[in-house]
Amino acid sequence: MTNYDSNGRERPLTIIDALYFTMVTISTVGYGDMSPINEPDLRIFSVCYILIGITIVFKNLAFIFSAPIRMVRVGMLALIESFDPTPRTVDTSGDGFSDTHLPKYSDGMSGEMIDLNGNGIADFVSYPSPFVYWGQELLPAFIVMVLIQLISAVIFCELLPDLKLGVALYHCFITATTVGYGDVSISTQSARLFSSFHILISVSWLGALLKNYEVLIDKREAQIAHTMLLTRMLNPDEVHAMDKDNKGVDKLEFVVNMLILLGVKLCDKPLEWNDVRPFILKFENLDKDNDGRIAHDELDLFVEQEKALYPKAAELCRELENEGKLTAGRRNWDLLRHTHHSLSWMKRSIHPSVRPASNATKNHILPV
Fold it and tell me: Fewer CB within 10 Å, N side or C side of the chain?
């Protein structure tokens, strides 16, 4: 492999040079100051290593750096939200207490308050303007990105005395974007060592920032779709389509179909009425007296029935293990176990003898 010192002379490869070449290669920065010239085996290895670096290494690094970006974003949005003048609660019962929390679908600064039924009381808070939304969502992580480059530029100036701050800052941003022109020479061992860490942090942070941007696009589209669905007038065909049993549209049918129109997904697929029907049948099976509610004794019976399924689930896992289908068996077992824990929690939460409602809880139950 061709490697040059600060005077343009070839010199042996060191561990720091190898680390530097590795980072420059798998990050696709590619300065061009080190390359496998006239070495076919090393060229083949480099191509394979680049593919691994792009698809596995830096993809996972971008995922890891998504966590600190979320922390910065959440912290900054919490700070911004403390200055948001939009009320978080309203008085819906007429008792003079604003104890009903308004649905809010954006952190930080909010949009306007929307009154759906014209009674003068807001029903939910709309999304903010595009300038506010994108500013408060992306600006914190972008500021951190700029600070990383500023600090890195100062360090490069210390490690390369002939390098000016403006050129160093230019080099840092060109590196972070993986363009890597190679017009700024990183020739000393100390500079290459720091450059390896600079590439790792900067490229990973930018990758996580771009990944977060895609998530924010989906979030923005969901905000707009939700508000449009709540504020627009439903046409007669949509309302008639909600009636699944030809008995008129009840509350359940209306809510579920509104969620379907909103584009809610179940297991990464658009929600359909057929996805809801098994849960309705499950409810009807629990509701023995057909009064539309599951009584405590009915819930107790259901928990016992679920417990009875445990031996069958364990046997299913053993059969799937023997057939080499351990993953499917574990998934079924975990699903059943999660269902049991959820039902047990539900029983403890609503059974008066186990968990009586406090006065504070009763005061927050509003009439329907």
Answer: C
pLDDT in tens, 165-194: 999 999 999 999 888 888 888 888 999 999
Predicted confidence (pLDDT) per residue in 17-70, tens digit = 888 888 888 787 887 777 777 778 888 888 887 887 777 777 777 778 788 888
Task: Write the single-letter amino acid at 176.
Answer: A
The tally of domains found in the chain comes to: 2
* CATH number reported for the structural domain that contains residue 184 in this entry: 1.10.287.70
Token pair recorded at residue 64 = 């890891």
How far is the C-alpha of 226 from the C-alpha of 215, rounded, in Å?
A: 17
Question: Is the same domain home to 147 and 50?
Answer: yes
Indicate whether 95 belongs to any domain. no
Residue whose tokens read 């995922």: 63
Phi, psi of 274 (to 5 degrees): -65, -25
Residue 148, pLDDT score: 94
Does the pLDDT at position 146 exceed 90? yes
Domain identity same for 161 and 295: no
Both tokens of 233, joined, read 């007038």
Query: What string of DSSP letters covers 112-126?
Result: -EE-SSSSSS--EEP
As a whole number of angstroms, the distance between CA 15 and CA 189 comes to 10
- For the chain, give the percent of residues with pLDDT over 90: 13
The residues near 273 (Cβ < 8 Å, ≥ 6 apart) are 244, 256, 257, 260
Query: 79 lies in a domain?
Result: yes
Final residue of a domain: which of 217, 243, 260? 217
Counting other chains too, the contacts that 280-284 makes at CB distance below 8 Å and 24 or more residues apart are 280/252
Structural domain includes residue 271: no
Q: Which of 172, 167, 179 is nearest to 151 (CA)?
A: 172
- Range of the structural domain that residue 191 is part of: 15-83+131-217
